[in-house]
Design goal:
about 210 residues; alpha+beta; Pnp Oxidase, Chain A; nine-stranded antiparallel beta sheet; 5 helices; 9 strands; binds flavin mononucleotide
Length: about 210
């Protein structure tokens, strides 16, 4: 292979994004882009990078799946005892990033984080396949384990325990909602002159729209 990492480059030419064309409300704009990501049949269009920090500002990031969004914010589900869960308990602020490569689009979200209601967590948990529900009980997410066999043994024990029964939601598993203060829509353009449209929430819950330099 002759190419080095530094040689990798792509010019983005698909389309543009104008402050005059975007929806006044960023959730409507997100719905539009998300629908286009679905239509384009992207692999896991609801996969998003979630960044959290410790109280003293050490960041960590990982991918989670968006499972709901509306005017209240962006929802994902996880183990509340995991690294991200503990970081969000101590510092309930987060950033999200979607990268829809085939559409040359990025969406960035940042805001305060709250747990969703236990009802919402129960409802989503019960919609998951049986084995995924068991997985939530099996894994002490982010803890060190000695080997994979232990995990599989625990899973098999739980399969036997819950055979033909409802699997309740573990109390340490549920949803978080990121309530945006800012949402940025990024459309790749030629010569790195990308379009960046930033929505900032105002006190009256209206949104200010500004263009950022690429
Ligand atoms: C495509 C993809 C989707 C994922 N979705 C989730 C998810 O919805 N919830 C979750 O807890 N972890 C999800 N993960 C695993 C996380 O990236 C991560 O490994 C795990 O949550 C532990 O993170 P933490 O130790 O920082 O808490 C996903 C990983 C990938 C690659």
């Amino acid at each position: 292979m002759d190419k080095t990492v530094a040689d990798l480059r792509k010019d983005y030419t698909l389309q543009g994004l104008n402050e005059t064309d975007v929806a006044p409300n960023p959730f409507i704009q997100f719905q539009k882009w998300f629908d286009e990501a679905l239509t384009a049949q992207l692999l896991e269009p609801n996969a998003m990078t979630l960044a959290t920090t410790t109280p003293d500002g050490k960041p960590s990031a990982r991918i989670v799946l968006l499972k709901d969004f509306d005017e209240r914010g962006f929802v994902f589900f996880t183990n509340y005892n995991s690294q991200k869960g503990q970081e969000l308990a101590e510092n309930p602020e987060a950033a999200l990033v979607f990268w829809w490569a085939e559409l040359e689009r990025q969406v960035r979200v940042c805001g305060h984080v709250e747990k969703v209601s236990t009802n919402d967590s129960d409802r989503y948990f019960q919609s998951r396949p049986f084995n995924s529900r068991l997985g939530a009980w099996t894994s002490n997410q982010s803890d060190i384990i000695d080997n994979r066999t232990l995990l599989e043994q625990r899973f098999e024990e739980l399969q036997a325990k819950y055979e033909n029964q409802d699997v309740p939601r573990p109390p340490h598993w549920g949803g978080f909602r990121v309530i945006p203060t800012q949402i940025e829509f990024w459309q790749g353009r030629s010569s790195r002159l990308h379009d960046r449209i930033l929505y900032t929430r105002l006190d009256d819950d209206d949104w200010k729209i500004q263009r950022l330099s690429p």
